[in-house]
Amino acid sequence: MLINRPRYYPFFIFLLLSHFVYAQNAASGKITDAKTNKEISGVDIFINDSNKPALTTTSGSFMVQSDSIIYKLKFLRKNYALETLDVTPENATNIFVKLSQEKVSDIQEVVIHNERPKYKNKKENPAYAIMQKVWARKRNNGLDKFDTYTYKEYEKIQFDANNLDSAFMNRKIFNKLEFIFDYKDSTASGKIGLPVFLNEAVYENYGENRPSKRTKRLLVAQKTSGFQDNQIVTLTAKNLYRDINIYDNTLNYFDIGFPSPVGETGFSTYDYNLVDTISIRGENAFKIRYLPKRTEVLAFQGYLYIDTDSYAVLGATLKSTQKINVNFVNGISTELEYDNPDENTFLPRKFVTEIEMTPFSKKKTAKSIIAKRSVDYSEYEFNKPLEDKIFKRTEEEYSDSFTDKDDEYWVKARPDSLSKSEKGIYEMLGKLEQTPKFNRIVKLYETLGSGYYNVKKLGIDIGPIFSVYGKNEVEGDRIRLGARTYFTRNDPWRVQFYTAYGFKDQQIKYGAEARFMFNRVNRFTVGAGTRRDVLQLGVQLTNDDGIMARTFASSTIFARGDNASLSSLNQTNLFTSIEPWKNFQIRLDGTMQSIKSANPDGFSLMYYKDGALRKTTNDSHFTLSLIARPGAKFSQTGIDRYEHGTLAPTIVLKYTRGVEGLFGSDFNYNKLQFLFYKPFLIGNLGKLQVNFEAGKNFDTVPLALQNIIPGNQSYSLAQNTFAQLNYYEFVADTYTTLHLEHHFNGKILSFIPLIKKLKLREIAFIRGAYGTLSDASKAINVEGFKYSAPTDHIYYEYGFGIENIGFGNLRIFRVDFNWRGNYLDRPDISTFGVKAGFQVNF
């Protein structure tokens, strides 16, 4: 089985390890001062009509629970006016309460109305008239109107384990770790909330719109509780969130599209109800409640606060429905605040997003973790001259100095002081780092997340552990062991190797590679490597020459039909690369290799050269690669980097030049290749993944150096391959391929009774390939008569898949049903096939 999207490994494993915490209480939220927006404590909270407070808060956050149904909450604090809140299942979590010393608060008391007014048509709905004016005066981010701008960004990410109890605290897993519960927060029901992770970061943002378009986001300070050196944990936290614009038609959460309630297509998804006219920060605003027409779709519910004069969005709340169909997630809520400097633009003020994550169950009683991210935007300055050097990358940006800020710096940098529980996280994790049992747990998490076991004293990683066993026709059972150097997360150099043994061919294989990066700014890197191994060539068109790259097909455990088309490869590679601009890499490879069949009786790579019959292809070539990843985000600054989840495209242009006579090379040839891959959010219709490749061999070369349209004879999922093609079925001098795969996120199946309860998601795909193969290219190979290109017609496959198969929140299995569209008269083909595998994503 192939597990797709490796950037989500850490998140999946983190959730599996988080199985011990509980879901939200009956009511929870935050209490702030209406004037200062600072969190306040010491508030008495009364449940229903009780005269006895159920809880006196010790921080700005609260959780209360009762044995009976909670339908009302009252909040009382000395010198503040009493606030009353009606509670329904729809607003029981993520409540935002502002207490005021005056009779009129900035945001009036929150009252949820269950009734939905009925209108003959949307034009009778007063909310529709308001939203029409919002769309007509759609605002753009105010940063775009100024020649230059700067602003400060403070980000805080916190994970809390919630709803713990005394029985949980007495579990054996916490033996010798009991002190962590000294940092707990008690709730009215006797349950416990425990903060477990806190990350703070300060960024300085610079932008220029004229005369040229340039931006820079500079990390100037970062502080992480207990995990400063564990980048996997920090990456897991930051990977949960995306930047959103409420005015867009589609909002990106987890790279899944949610329809925006402010988008021009909102009325196709939501019902709107004008609730009241209130005051927000001194501005009169319409308060509009919106609800999804169908709760089974990916959508939000909440309130919009629209300025009565300018029809600008002053604020919004977005809360997912109880039937949210996202893996590992039980709920999402976001609060947005905007400033509006003029009638055409807006500026972000504050964004707060909470995500309730559970590894298995969707039930409210399930164990969970609350992940909260708050971002404050401040210190805006416009049209201030900016020097060119600001936008140039410097060595200092890539050092670890941003972790060296003292406590005095953080006191000044925070827009609000830390709560008591937040301060306790740093102290608690500091103590945990000195506890052997905790370090063993972290070690297990790191091993499963990275695939390597780190021997810190030696600076070595052993692994990858998921590649230890494989099986194929030539080697039989195959064992692979490897290791790499690893001293810190930002190592500028790395040496890695592996050795493998096949019990059928009784041959030892090996590979080794060394890389060194001279400069962190432009990532100038050199490397060298060599390997001798049995590989399945022809499963990737635009491949890389990296020695440690490993194809799945050479170690497939289960396959369709006999796979005898494996090659024996001896290869040596030298390379250098540089990034002259951010996310744009130039790489030059020099490769010397010899290729022959690993199974001469079942697969021939023999060819004619100067009238002589040869079985080994000797090749020396240079490859120039231009690789662009605009918008991609990475963590770490060393030789290896972790990539954040984004919708960034991948664009590759490669030129390969074979040099006859160089180290015994047999052929002169020229090859040009192009690749484009990008996922697109298509409104509320889901996500479309597009992969386009094209290439051409300008000279005649034998089969070992030809372009093979990638087949997949395994029963596993494999991206950018043709499920119903046999290996080497199509060979081409010139080729183009296109893969279109659309994920509907359950939009269609949600209409089907009973089926919709399974929360399955549908996928549709079509794949096509076209190419040509010259007579000379056929004639050079001994068995060239077997090979042809999809010239007569475009070869195509189509089908559908079902993903999100599983139970509760653990839905990581996918099954595809594939049909072959044409070339059906060929022998030994499969016209229909089923592929399956795990894909760990949201």
Automatic annotation (TrEMBL):
Q: Check the record and name the InterPro entries matching this protein.
A: CarboxyPept-like_regulatory, DUF5686
| Signal sequence coordinates | 1-23
- List UniProt keywords, sorted A-Z: Signal
Give the protein's recorded name.
DUF5686 family protein
